[in-house]
Amino acid sequence: MSECKNIREQFALLLYGELKFDEEERIDSHLDGCPECRAALGRQKALHDAVDAAAVTPSRVLLNRCREELAELLPREKPASSWTLWWHQIGANWKIQFLKPVGAMALLAVGFFAAKITPGWNVSGGLGSMDLANFGGAQVRNVATEPDGRLRIVFDEKRERTISGSRDDQQIRALLMAAAKEATDPGLRAQTVTILVGDANEADVREALAFAMANDENTTVRLKAMEGLERYTNDPMVQNALAHVLLNDPNTGMRTRVIDALTGHEGQELDRQMVGALQELMSREDDHDVRERARQMLHSIKASAETY
Amino acid sequence: MVQPSLKRWAVRKEGAAVDETELIRAAQRGDSSAFEELVRTYDQSVLRLALSMLRSPEDARDVYQETFLRVYRNLNQFRFDCSFHTWLYRIATNLCLDQLRRRKVRKEEPTVVATPEGSMDRMDAAPETRVEGDPQRNLFSGQIRKRVKEALAELTPRERMVFELRHYEGMRLRKIGEVLGTSEEAAKNCLFRATQKMRTALGEFV
Fold this sequence. Notes:
The complex is a heterodimer.
Chain A: H1 2-9, H2 11-15, H3 21-32, H4 35-53, H5 60-73, H6 83-98, H7 100-117, E1 139-145, E2 151-156, E3 160-165, H8 170-182, H9 186-197, H10 203-215, H11 219-229, H12 236-248, H13 252-263, H14 272-284, H15 288-300
Antiparallel strand pairs in A: 1-2, 2-3
Chain B: H1 7-10, H2 18-28, H3 32-54, H4 57-74, H5 84-106, E1 112-115, E2 118-121, H6 135-153, H7 157-168, H8 173-180, H9 184-202
Helix pairs in contact in B: 2-3, 3-4, 3-5, 4-5, 5-8, 6-9, 7-9, 8-9
């Protein structure tokens, strides 16, 4: 029984993947002949899941507030380099990027000309000046598909305004892409991403989807974005984003799906970064199934499962 | 080659540090957009850690500001002796631990405050919205969250920090040791104690 006690004390470290090979072996061989300890391990896994459920996610409001305060505080700092001057110069840009709701009135005043002289968040080049700044710091409230296939988007400007048009309309596209990234309602982001998936053959849309897949805090949104990108895994930009998801997404299902997406295409060519990501994954992935899929993937492309 | 617009996901953690080195060097030369990119890469994790450790949005905001202000002030002294992620987390974790120690001395800022409607965790003041909404599941999740919060509150600041970094941040013990300025073995012992306490506190619940 004291052996069982010793074994069970190691379960947490086992689940974190922090035991040495010999220690894991000792536990595995004990578990083979001890149903009570196997049940205890199941309880320990349940405990891990319960702790997962208590994960804290900062609200977007809090994050934006922090960014706003930091943007205000930094110019007061006096670093040794020429930071202060630089920071003053981009102060407005910071606000445009992170504080659209707060800066809406100011943006209205500065208007079109300010948008031209300050780079917005959209760096794809595909949209030109068609980000939300052109709509006075607009907040997209609703996106709906009309019976004829046109899209109707409602967004706050100084007052609510509705525009309608087809998906390839430049304004519609710009608003959709902005909403996919900026909307505070995760349901709206999911809906927008779903619409954008239909245009994933366009590079700028793929970039918006890749951003959502890699950064959105909502799993549903990230998953929908990934669904839209699965046919474009030969695109280096998409592989770059998938590599990020593979190494950083907290959701096991998302990480599994990345590997499935990569293995699902015959003749798939992986760039060096993706191979590196898979190898990195092998050294830090806690989930056995994901690790095994990554190992098989590396094996199939004749790459080592380790980094040297 | 990574396109500029993709940097934000290419540098999120040390797994893809190629662009990060370029970003840091650019920031050290005074490139403000590079610094902004660094902030955006890590600030959500720093805020999450601070919020989780301190259970107070106000204190988490203070830690967030102070962390990035210190990074800003001292970036030119960063010599790549460790990863930027480790350096940043060293600053953030020290600030969190300092705050917890000060709180312990002053016995200030209780996590759970009394309100006319009953006790309320101040962290719940700005909850994150979710798409899904199964009331029963939410109720159960709420109960679990409450019990886990209580159990976490019983840990010492160091145990709690190690637990947070391992469980929620997914950081390896070796790196936790680097961040906290201790050995991997000490971090392991700390995690072991934390998980034992958590199991004792939550054992009947799961």
